[in-house]
Amino acid sequence: MTWLRALKDTTRSGLTLERRRLEPLVALRGAAGLALVVGTALALFGPVVAVSSAFGAFQAAIATLQRSWRPRPVLALISGGSLAISTFVGYLTGFQLALFVALLFLWTFAAGLAWAIGPTTGIIAASNVAIMLVTVTLPTSVATAAGHAAVIAMGGIVQAALIVLFPLRRWGAQRDALADALAAEADYARRLRHDPTASFDPGPLMVARSAAAVTPRQARRRPAELHGTRAVAERIRPVLASLADPAVGASAEGPERDRVREVLAAAASLLDAAARAVRRGVPVRMPPGAMDALKTPDTVTVLSGPARRAALRLVALLDDVLEEAEGDGTTEVPIRDRPSLLRLLPGALRSVRRELRRGSPVLRHAIRVATVVCAGYVLGAVLSLGHGYWVPMTSVMVMRPDFSQTYSRSVARFGGTLIGVGLATAIVQTTHPGVVISCALAVLCAFGIYLVMRTGYVAANICTSAYVVFLLGMGGEDAGQTVPDRVLLTLLGGLLAMSAYAIYPAWETPRLRNRLAEWLVADSRYAAAVVDHYANPVDRPGQDLRQALLTARDARIAWQDALARAIHEPVRSRGLTRAAAESADHALSQFGRSAMLMEAHLPERGAVPVPVAAALADALRQDGEQAARAVKERRSLNWDRVRAELAVWDDDHPVLRSGTTLLAEALDELTEALDEGVRR
Fold it and tell me: Residue 359: left (phi > 0), alpha (psi -120 to 50), or beta?
């Protein structure tokens, strides 16, 4: 993609508004906490301290709205406490430009590295740096700086207390994640009616799995319908696929195919009903006739062989899902432990340490954002425009580890600033509001931010810009003088951020082959674990099979995320065209799908072993490792061991025979796609 096309696409992305479900009560609670803190500080200490407290309460509420499975009060406390420390330490060094710039570099570098822990941590850390650039200008002495830090921390405490006292949609995020997973499977069942080999995005299942991790205290309070539903839902997907696929399920045409379509339609209706019940925390409303359509005797009389077993298995699993969604299920699943913050700290430090290597995109982001913020701060101090901190503040807020987000947010930041500042300035200059009215308008803008922040960065930034203008007015600043300067400084900050990424990039495109190789290895190990089970049947699959499946899902999502980012980058991938990447994506998806179909019919304990399966599993592991190296080195893939084992296959197991045939076809497609990419 050319630079012109990349800029055009990222501009359009930055100005796009998404349709998301709004949560007005959550926004109202955050705005109420902000009003309580600012109003109290205004009455007791005056407008300057009130402005400082406004930033603390504002940022604490923003932190609670981030995508995280941590309890919301914890996020508010972390945000308020870290911002208070940043403000106090920043003020202690603010009297000397060189010393403050050195501290700012270290602080911003650490915030950049925080992306190694996760996006929520990275966003909170970047926001703290941005707000610290403003709050350090408010105190006039060490004592007042300590006071400002205290009221900032108090803002986090108040927001946390309101969440505890006025909880809204308890376990709402976990309910949404599980409901999304069930709804995704319902959609999958409908698509299988028309396309028996349709693909399935495991993203919702992975999100639901992350949401299911709880602390011991949470485990005692978790609603019954969130206990085992996900574990049962995980087992439905391969059964749906094996029922619909003509290779291992019902025949492609005829009465069997018609009956399978009816079963899939009924399963989709029941899964949707379970999803609605889980999301709303209400009893399941059974769709009329759906369960009768599943349990009719026609299922046994019309279907035969693997298709009949899959249909009966699906009926049993759907019964379990409905029972669990009602909260009456007895499915026992191990509790996925979510470590406390203290227990999480060593793992977080290890994640950061792994990124301290040459070529790490997180390290490059940390260096890039720290350099830009310091350069922007010096530039803002040199310019005689006043309020020079808007340059580095804009840069740190828009910069992300990837190209597309940095450029799209820069455009959205400037567009939102222009609109928000223009509207707020018009209000201030025409009505001349006092301190109390300015405070009320700022709280109203904060409510707007909390309400629309998930619909797009440009919408939230319009409200954010107006919020800051009203705060400046509340603190005694002349909006008519500061607003034009702020617009220009915001533009400079955005241009600095965009220029820095062009000069010192961390492109995803050159790493696509590595991502593809990781997915190939993961899929090979997953397929090998499945085939191995046929050679040694046991009661239930071991942990190695489950872990191989999860690793394969993680690798697939990492590849798809990388491919989505690379599409918008103005660079080319050597030896991997876009068409080749799409073909390889399809081939590896079918590779994993063939293993999933075989997993759906794993033999029970006591079944007749398939000795040749063990040799095929070993061949898959060895050839998978070598093929991954070939992908990285741009060589042709070699599957000689796998082909040799398939050539001497002497077992007539129907599922294995069909599954391995699909697997071989997927490997041929993958080899052809990558060979074509190398030739081009």
Answer: left
